[in-house]
Amino acid sequence: MKALVVILILLLIFVLLQPGLGFKSQKPALYAGTGPAFDIRQHLSGDIISEGMIYGPRGHVTSRFVAQMKGTWNGDTGTLSEDFTYDTGNTQRREWRLTMGENGAFTAEADDIIGIATGQHSGATVQMSYKIRLPEASGGHVLNVTDWLYLMENGTVLNRSELRKFGIKVAELVAVMRRVED
Question: CA 13, 30, 75 angle in degrees (round to 5)?
Fold first, then answer.
């Protein structure tokens, strides 16, 4: 009986870590022919409001937030500041420093990001991968994050992110970003 439980656990881990299934199977090239064309210099510029939810590992909403964002660009370098207010009343600030590369590639850095985030534009999407260190109040864990941004025809950006530890999904973020009209 013990051997059967071990085999089932190993099989479950194999299935969960299997590349090509679900969220992780998406690749930027999959969206190359889609439109409208997403350019973060244009679509993540100016004042933006983001509203979203974070789901825990069991699929339940664990947190909601509103973020005031501001993107500024000088050629191929930019800053995207994010000021989050969570449903608990806690706040968080992040400032991304972005640098455009060739063929839609870009890199990004922020104080709570370990190393350098890498990203890619492709059609109506932007994909970015990085490691983030959560605040101590949230356990201080280091998580692997994959962000997907999808540009809609009206300029709204839909954000879906997976956060993983040891290859296992521990959280998912879903948010809507809209430019604030003057």
Answer: 110
pLDDT per position as a tens digit, 53-79: 999 988 899 999 999 999 999 999 999
Q: Pick from 103, 53, 100, 105: which is nearest to 80 by CA?
A: 100
> Residue 16: which residues within 8 A CB-CB, separation 6 or more?
167, 168, 169
Q: pTM of the entire structure? A: 0.84
Q: Which domains does the chain have, with CATH numbers?
A: 22-179 (2.40.128.20)
Alpha-carbon distances of 164 from 22, 25, 73, 104, rounded to whole Å? 14, 15, 31, 25
DSSP assignment letter at 28: G
- Give CA–CA dist 8/30, Å, rounded: 33
d(CA 171, CA 134): 12
**Strand-strand pairing, 113-122 and 105-109:** antiparallel
Q: What is the DSSP letter of 26?
A: -
Dump pLDDT digits (tens) for 75-114.
Answer: 999 999 999 999 999 999 999 999 999 999 999 999 999 9
Q: From CA 157, how far away is CA 50, in angstroms rounded?
A: 9
